[in-house]
Amino acid sequence: MSIKQSELILNPDGSIYHLNLRPENIATTIIFVGDQDRVDKISKHFDTIEFTTQKREFKTTTGTYKNKQFTVISTGIGPDNIDIVLNELDALVNIDLKTREPKEKLTKLNIVRIGTSGSLQADIPVDSFVIGSHGLDLNGLLHSYLIDEISNPDIEKAFVSHTNWSDKKSYPVIIKNSKELETKITSEKTYTGITATAGGFYGPQGRVLRLAIQDAELNHKIDSFNFNGHRITNLEMETSAIYGLSKLLGHNACSINAIIANRANGTFSKNPGKVIADLIIYTLEKLIQ
Hints:
Helix content: 25-40%
Number of domains: 1
Structural class: alpha/beta
CATH topology: Rossmann fold
Number of helices: 7
Distance between the termini: 40 Å
Number of strands: 14
Radius of gyration: 19 Å
Order of helices and strands: EHEEEHEEEEHEHEHEEHEEH
Shape: globular
């Protein structure tokens, strides 16, 4: 059955609406970054550049690094942007844009997010790399989809109990990463733990300027959560949406962050730019193996 024009929106040139991309413009290995400027920081290492475009905050460059094709996309900030990016990328590879019908043979994308974050644990130092074993959805996006088969109720219940989670908020959802990708990018340099994903930068992450927040102790509760050795290592705004939508759509996804601050002991990297640059090279090298 053909998907309606109002549901699958295309630009006059046939590209998908927000990303401004056609199916031939992307690789099957895709790197997500939040910041538009970080696209160039990655693609400058490419041996060839095949395509580049930008619309709004979504900048895309496709090229090759040591004979492997990559696409780098800036998603902007937040789970709502991830909802756009992942659904549109999936449409590019798994929906025939001319007939507007899903393809019989589906393509699986490999998606790795390269981000920056602060560690929540004293033993995870600045200048290290953290892989999200799970994404903890604190923002509610995934409840718009049918997620029963991909959630992890035992950890979710433990988290709700540990934090005395308000029933006025969206129920937390825990989604595993792609073990295949995690294994590929893991080394002695990496730490692994749950990455929590908030729906905002200030109140949702416990920051107080002029507005009181619903639970002033929430960050401490997040830091101290432990379920059978699973700790929450960092807090950001994209990973759970990437993991959840990728699982539902049949893609592999994993998130790796450069740790530039440690909230537990109050330290900050002396050279955060170098940490990010090192993570970029580290990830590219791991993905070509």
